[in-house]
Amino acid sequence: MRRKYLIAGNWKMYKNRDESREFICELARSFDLVPGLTVAVFPPFVGLAGLRDLDAKIKIGAQNMFYEEKGAFTGEISPSMLQGLVDYVLVGHSERREIFKESDADVNNKVKAALRFDLSPVLCVGETLQERQAGMTEDKLKNQLEKALQDVKKDEMDRIIIAYEPIWAIGTGLNASPAQAQEMHHFIKGVWQEMGGGQDLTILYGGSVKPENGRELLAQDDISGVLVGGASLKVEQFSAIIHHGAQLLDK
Hints:
The chain is α/β, with parallel strands linked by helices. The chain has one domain: Aldolase class I (TIM Barrel). It has nine helices and eight strands. It has an eight-stranded parallel barrel with strand order 1-2-3-4-5-6-7-8, surrounded by five helices.
């Protein structure tokens, strides 16, 4: 089976509408797609409209959504509102869990809602530094996967992408070593298959991914892409990571 990579950038609360459009145009000029390579960005909600068809080389994702289709939920964005604007939606990012107190039940509802509205959920899982030091990483990841996928049909699981993001490596400048990341990706793949998922699972690594470590991370057997934070805000840095993926696929 030919290898594939998804190189995704989560812009968090950066870039307004005009900045988003300018960035997409500049980024698209900086790389050529090769077979097996997918590039996506996750702008803030205000930047989504008008980005999807700006350049076919770059897919668009949303950073969050609510799980109800409509209703009196002031300030929320529904999955039906995202249809036609995005291909992917982040679900369960650690910042949503930690800062905004989203529960495992919330994450589960969002996964099911995304699937119901033909959006590809990028399900984020990861452990804190304290949990890693206490030897609880595998238990934490397995628990997050089981709760997030409760009542998800097995034939829908192949539409889900997993992003392993050790919380202690997000925005800290720290990152899991390629060997640590590979170990956790291999573990996640095993849990996934035990739960009835297929062989062709896309697992992204996220957590201080930079041009300096991107190539070595992508070269690991069970890492099928990266979810880039700060480095995705600068065309030169994000493009360098994209080129790492293209070079590895072209070998």
